[in-house]
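G., the chain you wanted modeled:
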Amino acid sequence: MTWMTTAAEARSYRRMYILAAEILCSEAASRELKRAARRVVRVLENVVDKPIADALVLARARARFAELVATLEGSRIIGEAKRTPPGYENRAAPRR
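Predicted structure as tokens:
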């Protein structure tokens, strides 16, 4: 299962945490992706095993996870090469 599929299916904070921890430990993840995953892990590491957590912490976790998903979407890997970011091929040549 790919990270994008797992992210789309992550409904609980525990699943979000597990995905973020997996990405953080992966050698295939980019620095940017690991940074986004680290932010999710930091927010959830102290509450993921507790039966109840502060709403502010969970809201922050949801926002960090949304950032992680956005980073995943921006850095999809097709085969061995990274996908060209949207609009990149349409950018004007730099002015001299």
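The CA atoms of residues 6 and 40 lie 15 Å apart.

Shout if anything looks off.
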